[in-house]
Amino acid sequence: MRSGIDHSARDPKVRPQDDLFAHVNGGWVARTEIPADRGRYGSFDVLRESAEQQVRDIITSVAEGNPEPGTVARKVGDLYSSFMDEERIEQRGVEPLAPWFAAIDDVASPQDVVVLLGRFLRSGVDGLVHPIVNTDDRDSSRYVVYFEQAGIGLPDEAYYRDPQHESIRAAYPGHVARMLTLAGLYAGDAAAAAADRIVELETRIAASHWDQVSNRDAVKTYTLVDRAGLAELTPGIDWDAYLAAAQAPTTAFDQVIARQPDHLRSIAAALAEVDVATWQDWLRWRVVHALAAYLPGAIVEENFDFYGRTLSGVPQIRDRWKRGVGLVEDALGEAVGQLYVEKHFPPRAKERMVELVDNLVEAFRRDFLGLEWMHLETRREALAKLDAFTPKIGYPETWRDYSGLEVDADDLVGNVARATAFEVDRNLAKLGGPVDRDEWFMTPQMVNAYYNPGLNEIVFPAAILQPPFFDVDADDAVNYGGIGAVIGHEIGHGFDDQGSQFDGKGNLRNWWTDEDRVNFDGRAQRLIAQFNDLESRDAPGHKVNGALTVGENIGDLGGLTIGHAAYRISTEGGEAPVIDDLTGDQRFFIGWAQVWCGAAREAEAIRLLAIDPHAPMDLRANAVRNLSEFHEAFDVVEGDGMWVPEDERVRIF
């Protein structure tokens, strides 16, 4: 049997005992140039490019068949065509935005701003809050609306205050001014003055935004209010008028969960205190900013120049066909996904995955039964949660119905607005109804996976189930180190610092004894401290935020520990064969490290350190240093680069 290891990616000059990431991936990193249209590039991206090409082939094949009007196939083809028709887009200019600009011209009061933001909700233009429909964290049997903070144009509140982002902050007003000028809204000094007012307002809004670490806190971000409570949080904001403008049910906000109450208080004050003319400036910017990708080339280029080149160090915009595929994925993802599965996902891959998942769950079960620091009361709850896990593999059982979505091959901006309205209506329609436990939040062609605490489910789309994550014909050790550890990672999210606060039914509830919680939190704090001392090779001098990445780091640690235990279960206690001069345990850890093969541009690496809850790729690969099993597999000793003294190794599960 072949191992499934890509030996051409390795750097034999680096020992795994000193740097597993470089040993496994160093050759690939040395010879691979990050594509000009990407900020980072690695195993995930290679698979995403492959899936992207496969989806493009599906789209063009469907369109060439001249499907009947109104069919989902016709909608797929027409949506893609509307994006690819650059000549028509140039001819129309910013004319598709004229109705929005006219409505903004008519704004005369804070109440008018609120009404317009309700209309924005249906058009793909984000406002001051982003309403999201999801299961109630404290009652997973029902849907509720969450209010998420919004209203700024930079990636995060830290960009408006942190000294390390000063160069981005300095470049931002000029970008806003140029965009407003290209849209024909202002000229010369007037554009610069408007941009200054917009950035000043955004800076005020950002001051009330919670930081990334606070936003991870499931308890802190749960404030359930009724209509009276919402009115008390946001005096002066007429939410009935907002709902009417959004064509939403009048009862949609009868109860909402304010994720950041401070932000709601702040925007209510800002609406009352900031002059209407400044709000008009900001509204115009929100429209141009949100819809820039669907406008003439000069606007597209300026938008990319700031958000691509300046913010992430990416020199070249992605090919237009790739951006067109992305639009179709966003609007009609499951329609394309159904065809993708038929062509690219063999049934035996799903069968093998079921076996892997079963072994991972059994490994977690054995781990909990033998976990010395966990007491019986907590252990029972953990096992009950494990028993209630729902794995979803490949694709949804029921495909989404797109019959209500209207697509016009000659109206790109209109298509974007209608697709947004379709999704808004689909989500709002959930309120008051039964929870759809079969719904997927990723398409089958997405190279990713997720854990959803509200449904206590782990989800693995079809596109991730290929090398280096999973090879149906390869050695078990590499598969367990790849997709097995990823499965373990996603299950581990059910027991990370935030997921562990949800019970088996998906409800936010403390099911831990006080002593066990202290023990768990102590281990998590050690992991935070460990990663706070690390920096990625792609952004030298910039440290990881251990508190921001702790959930994913716990997931990685649990995935590795339990993935390795599941591999041992799969061998039924026997000794694995030596393949490619590597033992089974060595192949397991190499399988893990090659999943994280990749590199990032420095600017992008710095940006991700500020906003991404995942640690950099090289540090994820080298998280194995916490496992005694890794030290034993490669005979790592004191003085080796990967050596961690036994009493400093963090082990949670």
From TrEMBL:
Q: Read off the Gene3D superfamilies from this record.
A: Collagenase (Catalytic Domain), Neutral endopeptidase , domain2
Q: Name one Pfam family in it.
A: Peptidase_M13_N
Q: What's a single GO MF annotation on this record?
A: metal ion binding
Q: SUPFAM superfamilies annotated for this entry?
A: Metalloproteases ('zincins'), catalytic domain
Domain Peptidase M13 C-terminal as annotated: residue spans: 448-647
Alphabetically sorted, this entry's keywords are: Hydrolase, Metal-binding, Metalloprotease, Protease, Zinc
Specify the superkingdom. Bacteria
A GO BP term, please? protein processing
Instruction: List GO terms (cellular component aspect).
Output: plasma membrane
Q: Peptidase M13 N-terminal domain: which residues?
A: 16-396
* Cofactor(s) needed: Zn(2+)
**PANTHER family attached to this UniProt entry:** FI17812P1-RELATED, ZINC METALLOPROTEASE FAMILY M13 NEPRILYSIN-RELATED
Say which family it is in.
Belongs to the peptidase M13 family.
Q: What is this protein called?
A: Peptidase M13
